[in-house]
Amino acid sequence: MHREALKKYFDFPSGVPSHDTYQRLWDNLCSNQFRECFGAFVESLQKITSDIMNIDEKTIRNSSSNKPLHRVSAWCYKNKMVFAQENVNEKSNEIKAIPKLLKLLDLENKIITINAMGAQRDMCQKIVERKGDYGISLKGNQGTLFEDVKLFLSELNNHEFINENNDKGHGRIEQRVAVVSHHTKWLNDIHQWPGLKSIGRITSTVLRKGKESKDTQYYISSKLLSAFELNEIARQHWEIENQLHWVLDVVFNEDKACIRNDCAAKNLDILRKWALTILHKSKDKPENSIKSIMRKNSMYFKHLIHCVNTILHG
Questions:
Q1: Is 291 a domain residue?
Q2: 213 lies in a domain?
Q3: Predicted local distance difference test score (pLDDT) of residue 201
């Protein structure tokens, strides 16, 4: 539809590429090299401006011919960007993929947040050695450590810092109460956890349509956190689901792509994140949604070029 306008930027010696041409491209393009190109683009576009980096995994349903593609991504909430990602052969191998992902990042003076899967001594040790800090949630996979932190924080006298945060929106009211303690020497003596300096708990109470639900999460960190910082770290880690995974699923229809070629599935995953990065950076108003910008781009070629120029020639 925009062939005449596109001729200002590209030559079309054989006409407009067909669907099959694009299919052959994505099927045969080396996904590892394409991923490196994406990383170079992100690095040239913007450095990490936040001191918090969130790491989480996502499975792309209906992708690949054998089993769904599973990837671990490093996301920065303030930048609204994926800075690196790593393939995971199986969900159980996520522990092996995260250290590979960490090697791609500058960890100095950064707080790396990971879910309970990241509660591994070796992983935390590598983060501390590279002058970073970790903020990791605990579950039963670290049974004795989890139970000791839970029991210690159940005593009110052990709470050194307390912070309450309230959110309202999307038909719900949420209250998050964080408590933190820096008394960790006894835990280090028992568990010998690398660089452990803070333990904390966040109790979340959600009121929706007259029904109340509660959830409690426990955390360990190598930084002397305040309760406010713990609340902020937990909130930003949750945003990787809201700002990245939800957008990929709902706006980009990622789970409905049904791409069976393994190489193409990996490449299109990178391409969606590349597009999302550009869309976030081309926002001229915070209230504009990603979906509305995509709609304008598809309808008005000038708007599309404006978005591209905002990033590439900004």
A1: no
A2: yes
A3: 93
* Count of domains observed in the chain: 1
Are 210 and 48 a contacting pair, CB within 8 Å?
A: no
**Strands 111-114 and 52-60, sheet pairing:** parallel
Residues 286 and 302: their CA atoms lie apart, in Å, by 21
Residue 253: inside a domain: yes
Region of poorest pLDDT, from 22-36, 83-97, 197-211: 83-97
Residue 70, CA atoms < 13 Å, CB-side half-sphere: 16
In terms of Cβ atoms closer than 10 Å to its own Cβ (0-12, 13-18, 19+), residue 111 is buried
Q: Residue 121 in contact with residue 196, Cβ under 8 Å?
A: no
Q: How far is CA 74 from CA 6, 35, 82, 107, 273, in A?
A: 34, 13, 6, 11, 12
Measured in whole angstroms, the distance separating CA 294 from the mean position of its chain's CA atoms is 21
Q: Residue 68 belongs to what domain range?
A: 30-281
- CATH number at 140 reads 3.90.350
Q: What is the DSSP string of 223-243?
A: S---HHHHHHHHHHHHHIIII
Q: Do the domain assignments include residue 249? A: yes
Global pTM reads 0.83
pLDDT > 60? residue 314: no
